[in-house]
Each structure stands twice: as structure tokens, then as C-alpha cells.
UniProtKB/TrEMBL annotation:
Stated name of the protein: Flagellar P-ring protein
Protein source organism: Caballeronia telluris
InterPro entries found in the cross-reference section: Flag_FlgI
Its biological purpose: Assembles around the rod to form the L-ring and probably protects the motor/basal body from shearing forces during rotation.
UniProt similarity note: Belongs to the FlgI family.
Signal peptide: 1-27
Keyword Transport: no
Originating gene: flgI
GO molecular function, one term: structural molecule activity
Length: 375
């Protein structure tokens, strides 16, 4: 072996070892891993009326609450309607809707937030409508915002002579900045004793310890203390402005989270399957056969003889075929990484719906090293 061969041998060996090692975990900012207790969104909900529709509103005979809501609104504006007028209303340009919004943390009175408007009755379309003033309430029943404005619908549709075409959803729209905040929600970040708490979005004891070590390394020992696998207690500054600076520095700390647990997500409705890189597969044999039923129905017509005064009789004849494909045993080799697991499952040639049953059976047999979660 000459000198050149010896020099090349060492790098090639190092590359082979590096390829066999797992990829290192990338560091993530603390703001992507945790949230501060007390800093949260608050859902809001309200009821209102959409007006100005082009004949696509609610059918008042089937949605009496639309008529009642309009009567109450006109009464508040000084217009009184008798019972006969109320019963004869045909409001094709009005629709009852539910209005929802999310109040962000630290929102102050006067700020504008987006709202989503959804049809409550049988309106065909909310396109081109205007939402009248609708109060938005929180879980405590208090009004926190007032919504009003022109609705933007992302869909389109047309119908004529029984034919109909529609793109996207016409019964839901959005008003950008359509609600004005009227009441602020107090956000208590610090607790008694001048402490605050961080909560991990995903419970993990190892990641919690890494975060505590990183915070104490930057701010000093005793700044962070792990209460459990999700909650971390922080010793916060007493001054409010210093607390904001403290939280900003916390969010920019880089932490390498621990590897997630092996998990396979199965969507039983759509048949989709998602698995992370920690999933491994042990050697196993799988046999899976498909059962199909084919029903063929034909109509047989029996004509009466000439001058027999008989009637033509139509009878339906059905033929049923039952077919079961052979399910030969297939050996799946052990997979050490996600690519090997996918390659082994693809060797079965099964549909996603069949793979759901196969994965459940493999988990029961101990061949699939992952947690199954069905959504």
C-alpha cells in the first residue's frame, strides 16, 4: 500500500462511520418549544345578521329565528312591526350568522381583530353581504369586541335550470379587522413571590432538563427550576419593563430538544399514515388477502305471445360473485430507520386502508416499535 492509498483509506473509513451515525438534533429557539403561563388567546363568539345579499339569504319559513332577530333589531331602532307583517316577511337578502374571533393576549381597547362569519340557517351564499353590529362575548358572558363590516367570501358559484356549480365554501366568510376590542383581558404573567412559569408544548423530561440547564447557564444558577416534565418555574425580575427584556432573552435561547418518541399517526377517515423517523420495524411475516364482492344486476323482459292478451313483465336477475385474493406470507426485514420501514411496508403492495389494519396487527405482535395513534 503506497502513501496515497493510506491517506485515502482513513477519510473513507471516517465517512462510512459518519453515514452510519444518526443525524444530530438541530437546536431550536425556546419560543418554539415553550409558552409562558398567562399569555394565551381567548375565543369570542357572537350572533348577528348579514344583509345586502343578492337573493341568497335564509328562507324565513324554515328559519324563524332570522325573522325574530330582524324584528328585534328594528324594534331597537324605533320601528314597530305588527304580528301580521312579521308573519308575511320574505327576507331573501338577510341571513342569520354566527361570528367567531380570537382575542390575542395583551389586546387593548380600540385594536382591530379579524372575525369569521358562518351561516346559521339555509342561506345559499353570503357573498356580497354586510355584517351588522354584533357583540362578541367571552366564556364569562362579557362583551369584549364589536364586529361589523363587509364580508369577503373566497368561493364562487352559479346555478340555472337545476344545474349547479360551486367552487369552495359560500356559507363562510371573513372580515379582516372586522371587530374592535372593547374590553381588555388581564394577563397575569408573574405569580406570588415574583415567579413566572413556562410550559412545554410537548411533555418531555429530557427536554425540560436541557431547558433548565440552558437558562441557568445564561442567567445564573437558580433562575430556572423544573416542577415536572412540562412546567418550569422562573425567578423573574420585579420591574415590569425588566420582565419584558427577560422574556425576550429567554425566547432566543437555543436548545437541542430530545428525540421524540416513535409514533405512527393513522387517520381512519382518509386512510393517511404519518410516522416519524424514530419508528423501527422488527423482522416479521405478513399475509393479507383482499375480499371483494361483485353484484351484477340485469333486467330480463318477458313478452306475451301474440293475441294472448298477456302483459309484458320485467324481472331483475342478479348475479353475485365472491372473490378472495390469495394472501401469501411475505417476509419483512427489520428496518433500522424510516427509509427501511417505508421500503418494507411498500413491499406488501397494500392500500392505505389495508396498511392501517396491518400496522395494528404488527403492533400487537410486537414487530412495530412505535405508538399507534388513531385520529
Amino acid at each position: 500500500m503506497n502513501i496515497l492509498t493510506r491517506l485515502l483509506a482513513v477519510p473513507l473509513a471516517a465517512l462510512a462511520v459518519a453515514a452510519a451515525l444518526p443525524e444530530p438534533a438541530h437546536a431550536e429557539r425556546l419560543k418554539d418549544l415553550v409558552s409562558f403561563q398567562g399569555v394565551r388567546d381567548n375565543p369570542l363568539i357572537g350572533y348577528g345578521l348579514i344583509v345586502g345579499l343578492d337573493g341568497t339569504g335564509d328562507q324565513t319559513m324554515q328559519t324563524p329565528f332570522t325573522t325574530q332577530s330582524l324584528t328585534n333589531m328594528l324594534g331597537n331602532l324605533g320601528i314597530t312591526l305588527n304580528s301580521a307583517s312579521t308573519q308575511n316577511m320574505q327576507l331573501k337578502n338577510v341571513a342569520a350568522v354566527m361570528v367567531t374571533a380570537t382575542l390575542p393576549p395583551f389586546a387593548r381597547p380600540g385594536e382591530a381583530i379579524d372575525v369569521t362569519v358562518s351561516s346559521l340557517g339555509n342561506a345559499k351564499s353570503l357573498r356580497g353581504g354586510t355584517l351588522l353590529m354584533a357583540p362578541l362575548k367571552g366564556a364569562d358572558g362579557q362583551v369584549y369586541a364589536m364586529a361589523q363590516g363587509n364580508l369577503v367570501v373566497g368561493g364562487a358559484g352559479a346555478s340555472a335550470n337545476g344545474s349547479k356549480v360551486q367552487v369552495n365554501q359560500l356559507a363562510v366568510g371573513r372580515i379582516s379587522g372586522g371587530a374592535i376590542v372593547e374590553r381588555a383581558v388581564p394577563n397575569a404573567i408573574t405569580q406570588a413571590g415574583g415567579t413566572m412559569q413556562m410550559e412545554l408544548r410537548e411533555m418531555d423530561f429530557d427536554t425540560t432538563q436541557k431547558i433548565v440547564a440552558a437558562v441557568n447557564n445564561q442567567f445564573g444558577m437558580g433562575t430556572a427550576l423544573a416542577l415536572d416534565g412540562r412546567t418550569i418555574q422562573l425567578r423573574a425580575p420585579a420591574d415590569a419593563s425588566e420582565q419584558v427584556s427577560f422574556m425576550a432573552q429567554l425566547q432566543n435561547i437555543d436548545v437541542k430538544p430530545s428525540q421524540a418518541a416513535a409514533k405512527v399517526i393513522l387517520n381512519a377517515r382518509t386512510g393517511s399514515i404519518v410516522m416519524n423517523q424514530m419508528v423501527t420495524l422488527q423482522s416479521c411475516a405478513v399475509a393479507h388477502g383482499n375480499l371483494s364482492v361483485v353484484i351484477n344486476t340485469q333486467t330480463a323482459v318477458s313478452q306475451p305471445g301474440a293475441f294472448s292478451n298477456g302483459q309484458t313483465v320485467a324481472a331483475k336477475q342478479s348475479q353475485i360473485q365472491l372473490k378472495q385474493d390469495s394472501g401469501a406470507l411475505k417476509l419483512l426485514s427489520a428496518g433500522a430507520n424510516l427509509a427501511d420501514v417505508v421500503k418494507a411496508l411498500n413491499a406488501l403492495g397494500a392500500t392505505p386502508a389495508d396498511l392501517i389494519s396491518i400496522l395494528q396487527s404488527m403492533k400487537a405482535a410486537g414487530a412495530l416499535r412505535a405508538d399507534l395513534e388513531i385520529i
